[in-house]
Write a structure and sequence with these properties.
Elements lengths: L1 E5 L6 H14 L4 E5 L5 H11 L7 H25 L3 E5 L2 H11 L4 H12 L6 E6 L2 H11 L12 H17 L4 E5 L4 H21 L4
Parallel strand pairs: 1-3, 1-4, 2-3, 4-5
The protein binds adenosine-5'-diphosphate and thymidine-5'-diphosphate.
The site of thymidine-5'-diphosphate (TYD) has 14 residues, from helix 1 and helix 4.
Length: about 210
């Protein structure tokens, strides 16, 4: 089973990806926990480039770099792990590219989706959680979390993150079967229990053969 967490920076993705991984491992599942961009040597190297605040990167070049990192991750890690029956949890995946490069940067959505499709093929998540929080709260949480300076992506103005947030909600409206929107303002415990309930239900569906 392939599960992804999405949302603007500071929405709580890594918190919930980690909690879900622990919860599933405690129930005997083998879990591969990943973050994007990253998790392979090539993707980590691309991540350094993408987050380097001293670089100016053209939006289409940025799109291709995220997709290149993802392609390597799909081929080297995600596809083999799924083939072995592991649960794969990724902190960000293809919806980040639609939301950030498509809605955020304003690139043509059809072009963005075509390039993503070329990179990931049929490796689409069974379930995606979008942690929806307002931009001010996310910014405040990032401030609490980090003493480090902002990276190249986080340097974007608030209006950019508003567009990204709306992008995620548009993706969810288009794909309600796959995408579950969670109110990220609720407590970590409440969100986590809802995540577990949804995952349990999807695992049952997979066992019944309703999902592949
Ligand atoms: P992301 O991975 O989306 O950037 P994190 O999971 O790193 O977000 O969370 C950012 C900060 O917000 C962390 O300090 C985390 O402890 C805190 N946080 C996460 N979820 C919640 C929540 N539901 N309520 C309050 N604080 C939260
Ligand atoms: P990261 O620190 O991993 O995110 P977060 O702050 O949410 O923990 O940084 C990844 C940055 O890259 C983040 O700002 C989102 C952005 N991004 C894209 O613009 N497109 C993508 O396809 C992906 C995967 C990430």
């Amino acid at each position: 089973m392939f599960i992804t967490f999405e949302g603007i920076d500071g929405s709580g993705k890594s918190t919930h990806a980690g909690l879900l991984a622990e919860w599933l491992r405690a129930r005997g599942h083998r879990v591969e926990l990943l973050r994007e961009p990253g998790a392979t040597p090539l993707a980590e190297a691309i991540r350094q480039i993408l987050l380097d605040a001293t670089l100016r990167i053209d939006p289409v070049a940025e799109l291709m770099l995220f997709c290149a990192a993802r392609r390597q991750l799909v081929e080297d890690v995600i596809r083999p792990a799924l083939a072995q029956g592991q649960v794969v949890i990724s902190d960000r995946y293809a919806d980040s590219t639609v939301a950030y490069q498509g809605y955020g940067r304003g690139l043509d959505l059809e072009m963005v989706e075509r390039i993503i499709g070329y990179a990931i093929g049929s490796v689409v998540p069974h379930v995606t959680f979008v942690l929806d929080v307002d931009v001010a709260t996310a910014l405040q949480r990032r401030g609490v979390r980090q003493s480090r300076t902002t990276d190249r992506m986080e340097d974007a103005p608030e209006a950019f993150f508003e567009r990204v947030r709306r992008g995620y909600l548009a993706i969810a409206a288009r794909e309600p079967e796959r995408v579950v929107v969670l109110d990220g303002i609720q407590s970590v415990e409440m969100i986590h229990s809802r995540v577990c309930a949804v995952v349990l239900e999807r695992l049952r569906q997979i066992h019944r053969g309703a999902l592949t």
